[in-house]
Each structure stands twice: as structure tokens, then as C-alpha cells.
């Protein structure tokens, strides 16, 4: 990363902000257990501080309410063949998030994560916004990001932002394991007909929804909201400009600003 960063900075125009975005800057789902490697935000950020030493570094931080984030991350995880057997269903995924000894849960603790950023990058500033607000009004969010980066004013109203709205919710995929199963037991002609009629897709969605193996139930969502309500409340205390938005979108567990 250090070598690639040097090349990138050499090629970048003078006085133009360079934005780097990578899920591994926070916490990789696969790396928390793969080959015995445990990645925690504090260790990841301290390594990044060494890589970016000597550069002016600031942060863009997007929050998503933890139950919604967990659901989206599981569906993303579920859709990848290499990851399917890690969790197999959303119940197992939920257990890992609630396990105090599982390093994956650290990525869902926003107050902890922000503290680690300030610890490793004490002179950096952080622009924070809510995913829910971006989904509701991406024009305003993009304007804030543009201003933070010092970019020239732009008429976002003239841009076609429909594609941004369409990508704010992860859609369900049939698991690779199910597809492999169907390939083994169904002739290609039958599979083609089923695919054209969407029978395979619709039938599997119905079965999976009935089994409840992919979606968090309301009680489980509430459980996740309660799990991080205190942390979210502490985060909001340091960001009064976000307090009402976090309250509106249920980050404190009750939707009224109180803790459960």
C-alpha cells in the first residue's frame, strides 16, 4: 500500500484531494479469521498511520444503523461463493456480532472506531454522515462532501442521481451453494426454462424467506439496536449536528433519543 500510495500521489495534480476508499481500511469480514489473521480497527488504523505518515490525512465516515448494516453485510457475504460456508445463515452471523470475543463486532461500534481514528490520527478531521440520510437526500450529502473536500461548487440537481438511490439497499442473491446444487440435479434445458420463467429465483426466494435463514427478524433487529444504543448515544454527544438525525433513524434503540 505504501508503494502504491507514493505512485498515486506522484501522479495526482497539485492541491487536488485524493480520496481512497477500501473496506479493509476498517474491518474485512474474511480476514477476521482467515489463516488465523485477526484484524481489529485499532491495529488496522495504527498500520495505516504508519503508511500515511507525512501526509495530510482526513476522514470521510458514513454510518449505517447497526441492524441494517448487519443485514446488508450478511447478504453481501452470502452472495460470494468463497464466503458462503462461513456463516450459512443470518442466525450464525448474528451470534458472532453479539460475541464479545469476536473481533468482527468492533467494526459496528462507531464510538470506539472514531476514538481509534483520533488516537492514530490526532490532527485529522472527520466528516460524518448517515447512510439513511444519504438514501433520503443524496444531493445534500454530496454537497457536504464536496464542501469538505474543497471541490468547486456543482449543480447536483442537474445530475442523474437515481442510480445512487438504487444502490442504497443490498438485494438478495440465490446462494452459490444453491446454484451448484441445482446444476448437479437439473438438466441444462430445464435450468434454462426455469431461469427464463424466473421459477428458480422466485421459488428459492420463497423457501429461503420461509426458513428465515437470510433475514433478521424484528426482535433480532431490536436486539442489535439495543446492543449499540449506548455507543451510538455517546457518539451523538460528540456530534450534536447529527443527534436529531440519529434519533429520527433509531440509532438510540427507541427512536425517541432514550436508551433501552
Task: Please provide a written account of the structure.
The chain is globular, with a radius of gyration of 21 Å. The chain has a two-stranded parallel sheet with strand order 1-2. The termini are far apart. It has 14 helices and two strands, in the order H-H-E-H-H-H-H-E-H-H-H-H-H-H-H-H. Helix content is 55%, strand content 4%. The protein is mainly α. Helix 2 packs parallel to helix 6, helix 6 packs parallel to helix 13 and helix 13 runs antiparallel to helix 14.
Please outline the helices and strands.
Blueprint: H1 2-11, H2 41-51, E1 59-63, H3 66-78, H4 84-87, H5 90-98, H6 110-120, E2 126-130, H7 131-136, H8 138-149, H9 162-166, H10 176-185, H11 188-197, H12 199-211, H13 218-237, H14 240-248
Helix pairs in contact: 2-6, 6-13, 13-14
Q: Which structural traits does this protein have?
A:
260 residues, mainly alpha, two-stranded parallel sheet, 2 strands
